[in-house]
Amino acid sequence: MAGAYDDRDGVIWMDGKLVDWRNAKVHVLTHGLHYGSSVFEGERAYNGKIFKSREHSKRLLKSGEYMDIPIPYTVDEIEAAKAEVLAASGLQDAYVRALCWRASGEDMGVASARNPVKMAIAVWEWGAYYGDAKMKGAKLDIAKWKRPSPETIPCFAKASGLYMICTMSKHAAENKGCSDAMMLDYRGYVAEATGANIFFVKDGEVHTPKPDCFLNGITRQTVVGMLEERSIKVNARHIMPEELEGFEQCWLTGTAAEVTPVGQIGDYTFEVGAMTRDIAESYEKLVRA
Closest Cα to residue 56, out of 221, 201, 179? Predict the structure, then answer.
């Protein structure tokens, strides 16, 4: 599948119905468009099965709770909808996007309690998120924008509006010839990339930022479990940016990113070493098992 995302063949699930892809539309006065009142999930299907599908559905509902967006579907109903649209797509390996938003209604100011919450699920082909960087190592910029304090936003929600600083950071990185950007948190600690968690290796141990002000990704949790099964010590802690000089390897994790090696962050370089390759290859086997 190629071309603009609003001009493709296929169907999109919208509130219980499979709608022609090109007719899956909302009104211009939809609250989510104006105020970012929407939450979403990004998921991948391998061999016709969505990896950790229920965990994603549960997180979608939790994000709705965080953002005061009461999603009118249960986990089982979301699971059934995803299965229906995935089957209708005819794809075995695919990206699955579930989105819930405050729709148009009686409210069009900041408040939106009287507006209904809608849901849509789309499925499409999506290859490696970072292209050939998945093999040779991605190059990252260091973003000027920081992940905000939990006192300012519900930082554990996968909410659309919270990604704007990520979008700006990724645009700036791409303009410098980078694949992505590493972001610091409001205290100056290393946090994550714009859409992926980050891991480092030093002296046979793994170090990863403590997810106390950003999303603890499902892929991140999966990889931590894989490392622990190998009896590799995982240090989830606050990491200062100057520590990057002493790390030997680095990789990113995320549903879209999967496990992607990092070769450079700013002026710091890393090898695509044995542990990175092992985790990337083992993750690929796990999701296709």
Answer: 221
Structure confidence by residue, pLDDT tens digits, 49-70: 999 999 999 999 999 999 999 9
What tens digit of pLDDT does each residue of 66-121 get?
999 999 999 999 999 999 999 999 999 999 999 999 999 999 999 999 999 999 99
* Residue 18, domain extent: 11-124
Token couple for 14: 């919208």
Cα distance between residue 107 and residue 114, in whole Å: 6
Instruction: Name the CA radius of gyration of the chain, rounded.
Output: 19
Burial of 34 (0-12, 13-18, 19+ CB in 10 A): middle
Report residue 117 as tokens.
Answer: 């919450």
- Asked, for residue 6, whether it belongs to a domain, the answer is no
The CA distance from 280 to 196, in Å, is 14
Residues 280 and 236 in one domain: yes
Of 99, 124, 149, the residue at which a domain comes to its end is 124
Q: Which residues are catalytic?
A: 158
Query: Do 76 and 25 share a structural domain?
Result: yes
Residue 105 lies in a domain: yes
- Rounded distance, CA 108 to CA 64, Å? 19
Task: Report the C-alpha gap between 126 and 117 in whole angstroms.
Answer: 27
Residues 98 and 152 both lie in one domain = no
